[in-house]
Every structure is written in structure tokens, then in C-alpha cells.
Amino acid sequence: MTSDSGAERVLDVATRLFAELGYDGTSTRMIAEAAGLNIATVAYHVGGKRDLYLAVMERAHRTERAALESVLAEFTPDAAGVRRLVDGYLDFCVEHPEVPALWMHRWLSDAADVAHLENLYVRPMLTMVAEMVRPAVSEDADLEYALMTVIWCTHGFGRGGVLDADGRRVGVGDPRQLTRFRAHLHRLVGYMLGLPEVAE
């Protein structure tokens, strides 16, 4: 997500800083300096810090929703379809690590005064996925918790990875660990939703 236009450049920089430091840890001055602009120019392009945060979150949501809709367009209500959906979500998070990072900051009460974004963006997507997936899963599966578990695990792996033998964190940048996590996620989802085994 990069652009040379003033407003897009500010959004790119703000996205990076909000993802790294959170809303509460980022100032408008920091964004302006990182974008090579003064605060007045940032305000001219996008308004104040809250306006900028709302624009960043809306853009992140549009990107995520477009990716989700693309995967759902090919969805089949069976174990293989659910697995492809999980893979699509994992691939999105790997390709756009700023999006999970933005939401993880919110999990930690960042931007607590901007409380409506989960109902505006997250809840409708969860409902959309649940409606598509429900025919494929066991009747006694807790689909809501299963969907949230995929999100929690994927975001956590993307940000924290796992510890290697030397105690270093390795994650999405390590193809072997990404493959292991994907297989683990497949098994986890299959267990949670009561899905039949699908050959890898």
C-alpha cells in the first residue's frame, strides 16, 4: 500500500506507525515527520489524528474485505472449502501484516475512545463467513469461537511466531514455520468444526 499522492502517503505512513506503535503511541507530529511533511499539511490532507486513524482503519477494512470476498466467491461448503478459506485468511495476514497489527493494538485497549469499529467492520465479516461456513460444519460446533480462534491464532503467530531451538522468535518470514503453522491451523479448524480429514 504505497502512493505518491499527499493524502495516500500520509495514510501509508500512519498505517505503518499505528500498526507498530498503536494509536495511543503515535502522535500527529510523528506521522508528519515520517511523511516528510509539516503538521498543517497532514491536517489539510486528512484532518486530525482521530480522522487519520478512522481513514487508516477503513482502508485496512476495505483491503481485508476485498480479499475475503474473493476467497468466498470460490467457497464450497465442505472441508476442502473451509480449509481454502483458512488458507486465504492466513495468506492475507502474511501479505498485509499491518492489518492484524492494527486490530491487535485494539485488543489491548488502544484507541479505546474509538469504540465502534468492531461493530462496523469485524462483526459483519464474521457474520458473512459464519453464514457461508455453517452448512459445512458439525451441528454442535461453536462456530463463533472457532472463527475467533482462527483470528487469535493467526494474528498471534504473525506477530509473535514461535521460539526456535535457540530461543529466537521465528514466524511468517520462515517458510518452514509458516508451513507448520498452516498444517496446525488445518488440524485445529478440522477438530473445532468436526470436519472430515482432507488429504494435504
Explained architecture:
This protein is mostly helical and 200 residues long. It has a domain at 56-193: Tetracycline Repressor, domain 2, CATH 1.10.357. It is built from nine helices and two strands; from the N terminus they run H-H-H-H-H-H-H-H-E-E-H. It has a two-stranded antiparallel ribbon. A hairpin with a 5-residue loop joins strand 1 (162-163) and strand 2 (169-170).
Whole-number mean pLDDT: 94
Strand order of the largest sheet: 1-2
User: How much helix, percentage-wise, in residues?
Assistant: 55-70%
Shape-level CATH architecture of the domain at 56-193: Orthogonal Bundle
Poorly predicted segments: none
CATH topology of the domain at 56-193: Tetracycline Repressor, domain 2
SS summary, helix count: 9
Question: Sheet bearing the most strands, described?
Answer: 2 strands, antiparallel
Percent of residues in beta strands? under 5%
Give the termini distance in whole angstroms. 33 Å
H/E series, N to C? Answer: HHHHHHHHEEH
Structural class: mainly alpha
What is the highest CATH level, the class of the domain at 56-193? Answer: Mainly Alpha
Rough outline: globular
Radius of gyration: 19 Å
Number of strands: 2
